[in-house]
Amino acid sequence: MGIIHRDLKPENIFLCKQMGLDDYPKVLDFGLAKVTEQQMRPGSVNLTQEGMVFGTPEFMSPEQAQGQTLEATSDIYSLATILYEALTGKLPFEARSPMEYIQKHVVEPPVPLSDRVPGLRFPKGLDDAIARALAKNPKDRYQSAIEFAAALRPFAGASGVAVEGIFQMTPAPPSVATAMGGAVPVRVTKGPSVALLATVAVVCLIVGVVLAVAVMKVLGK
Question: Which residue in 7, 75, 115, 128 is the catalytic one?
Answer without folding.
Answer: 7
